[in-house]
């Protein structure tokens, strides 16, 4: 897939969408186990877990930033069709007091 506007103007591919609709950013070969593969360098790890929807890979450090306003929720919420949510949260609108909390939601 090639499109004007999806180009880093450096003579290299910036983003790939393959025939299986997998997206690669920083790679022309997104992992077959995910829908989105963001790569800043080869990690040297083997095949990612088959349940991975998003892979973030780096040759040194790699991470995700979840940023919110000062009094708003910032965290990760897991859930299933039974709405048994599991939350990893820090600070935010629910007064978590700058602690990392893993809890089962009552919602």
Description of the structure:
By secondary structure, the chain is mainly beta. Helix content is 0%, strand content 26%. The protein has no helices and seven strands. The strands form two sheets. A four-stranded mixed β-sheet has the order 1-2-3-4, with no helix packed on it. Strands 5-6-7 form a three-stranded antiparallel β-sheet, with no helix packed on it. A hairpin with a 7-residue loop joins strand 5 and strand 6. The protein starts with 14 loop residues before the first strand and ends with a strand.
Task: Detail the topology: elements first, then pairings.
Blueprint: E1 15-17, E2 23-25, E3 36-39, E4 54-57, E5 75-78, E6 86-90, E7 100-104
Parallel strand pairs: 2-3, 3-4
Antiparallel strand pairs: 1-2, 5-6, 6-7
Descriptors for this entry?
mainly beta; four-stranded mixed β-sheet; 107 residues; three-stranded antiparallel β-sheet; 0% helix
